[in-house]
Amino acid sequence: MNVTFTLLDWLWVALFLLLMIGSGVLFYRLGKRSESDFFLAGRGLPWWLPASSVYATHTATDTPMWITGVIYQHGMAGIWYTFFSAWAAISSFVSTRIFRRSLAYTQAEWNVVRFTGLGSELLRGWMAGWQFFMNMFVLGWVGIAMGKVCEFLFGWPTWIGLISFSLVCAIYVLAAGYWGVVMADFQQGIIAFLVIMIVSFWGIFVAGGPTGIIDKLAALDMMERINPFAFTGWWSGSFPAAWFVTMLIIAVLGGFGMGTSIDWYVEAQRIQSAKSVRDASYSIWWGTLLGLVRNSVWAVSILAFFVLFPGMTETADYEMGWFRLGFDYLPAGMLGFFFAAILAIHLSTISSHLNLGALYATRDLYQHYVNPKADEKKLVQVGRISTVILLLGSFFYGLMMEDITSWLIFALWIMAAGIWLPNILQVIWWRFNAWGYLSAWIANLGFSWLVVWILPELGVIPELLDYQQFWLLMLLGALVFIPVTYLTKPESMDHLVHYYVMSRPIGWWGPVRREAERRGLITPAGDLAGLAAELSRPDDAKRK
Amino acid sequence: MNQGLATVIGMTIAYAASFLGLILAWRSYKKHHSQEEEKP
Question: In this structure, are residues A72 and A302 in contact, taking their beta carbons and an 8 Å threshold?
Fold first, then answer.
């Protein structure tokens, strides 16, 4: 389809882009003050700013395409794919609080807070390199989704949509760093949420409202599409119940760990930018709640799209369904506003990943390993250079990924499967050490290639379903990291006590807790004692 | 470019980035470790 914009439509788009660039100009002075400002907004944000950033970042251009795909394909049962984000409901009150107390800038840095020695340093370097790539990858992936939307709407070649809007976004990210990201995210979050609601309810209205949708599904003899538990059997088919149970376990237990979801790494930056542990908790909880509300409304609107356009078989056709509801049915003059909202969705994700990838490159690789004596001005400068490298790399990946979406499954999902359990154990089990965690990462590199590509290709094993891949990779990983953990020394007790008193983790920490009690650092009730308690009190309480 | 080749190239870059971080960490650790040992 080719959409024709009026002057009013283009005016909406121009106004929106000016507003975003204005964020960079307005917060330029704050962003350049220090590394902490450029990447964490000085750790002083009230909860609602990182919350809106969590919501805005995880509302990307490809998100409506992905949700449309699973709902159109599986009916309301497809909503469980989006339930992954429920890990945050647990994490808000467990791993979020532990991570905020650690004061680590990144998840890579957290490794040297939790572990010690050479193993912890190797983990930090490894994870920083991986995250630098991963952010570039996500930028390319989201960028090419925007390219496809522009091709669909205006008939532009995909590279135009990929490059042009990312360049606009880079202006305010380069100027103001995380200050620009989070302030733009706040505006983008509001615009995106409002327009998603308007377009979705408009689509539902066009399809005859909830009653009309149900009547049409009945007429199509497809009433099972409104049943969220309409699986294809227990163990087989396109959506077996075993996959549903696996996703629930991943989401719920994953909340106790760090890094069990790809979203965690973005959240980690928002957690550290909040002004207190409580603000960090609220930001993750509320940001995710907004996302779940959005997904629910989206799902119903896709049912509306389904009854309006049933029988599509090509993914490329039906995954644009939600966009079609807007561009086919919104009145003239509103199309530009809708496209501005799509830009909001797009820019919020691009800006976050540009700044986050640069954070790993600057804080973990450059400052920690290359130039530990760099001053604040130099660090901000390196942050900007890293941002440009990420941007250029994302264009390369985006253009490569045009035909290879299977990367997404491999890099995001499978690479997480084998380290899902270690990601939880590192938080809740004192005996788990750096070598165990590092061995899980390295082993998973090999196992994931074998299980997903090589062994099925050679006919050694059949092609496995998603839930089978997950459990097999978890088991194979455990066969490596559990012996490695027990065959290597635990972290030093001094380091563990320091970490325990600072972060107060939950789980199996008995020996460390008893040692901290013996040293008079915590009370038997688990509260901080003596000087530690005095230092942890808020400033106003100390003055009283 | 076919899908398999593109995946291999893309993931190779990912692994290279990770191993680069690993090597940086190793070099930095060894450097600091040897400096500490040299101190009287």
Answer: yes
